[in-house]
Amino acid sequence: MTTTLPTLNEISAEMVVARSQSAGEPAWLTERRREAWTAFAQMNPPEWRRTDLSKLDPTTIAPSDGAHATAIQWDPALAAQGVVFTTLAAALHTHEALIQKYMDTAVEPLKHKFSALRAALWQDGALLYVPKGVAIEVPLRLIYTLATDGTAIFPRTLVIVEPHASVTLIEEFTSPDLRAGSFAGPITELFVGDGASVRFVSIQHWGSGVYHLAGQRAILARDANIEWTSIQLGGQVQHIEAETTLVGNGSRLNWLGATFAADTQHLVIAPWMRHVGHNCESFMQFKTVVNDTAYSVFDGMIKIEHESAATSTRLEEHALHLSPKARNDSIPGLMISTNDVLKGGHASTSGDIDQEQLFYMQTRGIPRAEAQRMIVMGFFEPALETVPLEELRAELTAEIAAKI
Amino acid sequence: MSNDLIIKDLYARIGDKEILRGVNLTVRQGTIHAIMGPNGSGKSTLSYIIAGHPSYEVTGGEIWYKGHNLLELEPDERSRLGVFLAFQYPVAVPGVTVANFLRAAINAHRAEEGKDPKETAIPAAEFRKLLREGLNVLDMDESFIRRYLNDGFSGGEKKRLEILQMMLLKPSMAVLDETDSGLDIDALRIVANGVNRLAGPEMGVLVITHYQRLLNYIKPDVVSVMMDGRIVREGGPELALELEEKGYDWLREELTGAA
Lengths: 404, 259
Description:
The complex is a heterodimer of chains A (404) and B (259).
Chain A: H1 13-22, H2 27-42, E1 62-63, E2 70-73, E3 84-87, H3 88-94, H4 96-102, H5 113-121, E4 125-130, E5 140-145, E6 151-153, E7 156-161, E8 166-174, E9 182-184, E10 187-192, E11 197-205, E12 210-220, E13 225-232, E14 237-246, E15 252-261, E16 266-275, E17 281-290, E18 295-298, E19 301-304, E20 311-321, E21 327-330, E22 333-336, E23 341-352, H6 355-362, H7 368-384, H8 390-403
Parallel strand pairs in A: 1-6, 4-7, 5-8, 6-9, 7-10, 8-11, 9-12, 10-12, 11-13, 12-14, 13-15, 14-16, 15-17, 16-18, 16-19, 17-20, 18-21, 19-22, 20-23
Antiparallel strand pairs in A: 2-5, 3-4
Chain B: E1 5-14, E2 17-27, E3 32-36, H1 43-51, E4 57-65, E5 68-69, H2 75-80, E6 83-86, E7 93-97, H3 98-110, H4 117-120, H5 124-137, E8 148-149, H6 155-169, E9 173-177, H7 185-198, E10 204-209, E11 222-227, E12 230-235, H8 237-246, H9 248-258
Parallel strand pairs in B: 3-10, 3-11, 6-9, 9-10
Antiparallel strand pairs in B: 1-2, 1-4, 4-5, 7-8, 11-12
């Protein structure tokens, strides 16, 4: 039996409220959803100059009915140490106060029309909570999937790592090839406590056709540390707004990215490093490869707030063009509102595959196409080598190779 | 079919600049053949053209090896035919480890048309054994192979890696372009040892060098002198010593005097 789900233009605030209530959600959440939906309905779309949403049609976007897209992979024995890793729907029954306290405080729900849409309609999602001092060695994995054409999901990831705890989390977005109109609006919020350490690997490798409009933010407390890897390979149109806010003194960020846009893909990412605390260090290196007639945008930013002091930061983006018709816009920015900066800089490079590298490898018998593949893999290696699971790394390698 | 490398009346330029002006040279199988010459005489250009560098335009002539005109083959096809160039300036490829690069090169040589590359790939244990042997001969640490290809390598490390590649690929015709540049005496000895272990009746070696020094360690059978894009003189090992003693100007004067 198939029922036709209501599309965005058919949904009303009453329907949003009714669904929340019938799911037994707490009143504060129902109210947040109502408020967000009202904002969505009233707002104009954000003016994203480099993101083409002209083909996004609300009459074809049908939010999924319930949370069917979340898969959690971990060792449940960790629960004995107080670790919580479960769907948000389940966690609302067991950790409501925690969720209420943190949710929506990193990614602002009413920032623009799409953030409001996500906040109003999310169903899928997971809570990861790591108690104070607990160190988890084995990577935890969270997979969001889109199984059917033309549906929309709004998954949200909420990660709370208490002081001096450590964890590795892989967040993945994956699907078969879908027809245009399939839609994902994820929200990811990470809270890294005093002296805590997080390795976060976020992988967007949807099949073709998917629109991916995401908001991600990590907030670092004192001496907190995050190693963040952002990998973007799939979908049709992507717009990711990501930020790490170094709030606590002495916090550190190391952010690596790999984006590969091919065919007619249009992949935009805007990672921001925002310095608030004293003596914080951040480093960002994003790599972009474009092929065919694809278009990618790197809109990275270092923002050094007036209350910060003794910041050290560097941002790099490097782009490789495999086709003369492919395009990459790199717009690295630096906004400084204080005189007290220790080190700050950014750099970006762009070019074709180095002919001397190709020649050198060919003189060892390696055919040109294989040499090209190896050079691209080498270009992405800094990000790829941080992917903690061998079989996942092999999967990504194959996906990248198929796009060359 | 001859396994000599035969260069016939080779002309080449880069941009508007003519560099090779009728090179005639035969490197016989089983010999070590040195080309000496002053800077700018076209020695390195010749080595690049043998290997197939895309920046040079060949305007005349042929290079024959094993029944093929090399000029008609891609650089990787020349390599698989047995031609090897040890670069004067090896190229860095960040993100590609030495181990992966060597394995890819070996497997490219082992590949056979119509066969699954997995079938012809070198078994892991055999690869490790070969590597260990090579590293040992060249006095290199095993950690070397996990580094990115030539990325941040010292001059000596780059030259050793060139010889390691040669040892693993076992070419039948090796061209060594200024392999001695930037090496101290100890490193030079090690590198020369690597070359001498390979050289033999099956292999031709073309040693390109500015100085006679390298030829103390890699003994040539034939010495050719290149000037202004041509081979101007050919002789035995004594010619290298004579050049070392009298300098290139002596030969230049003799040649212009004779003209």
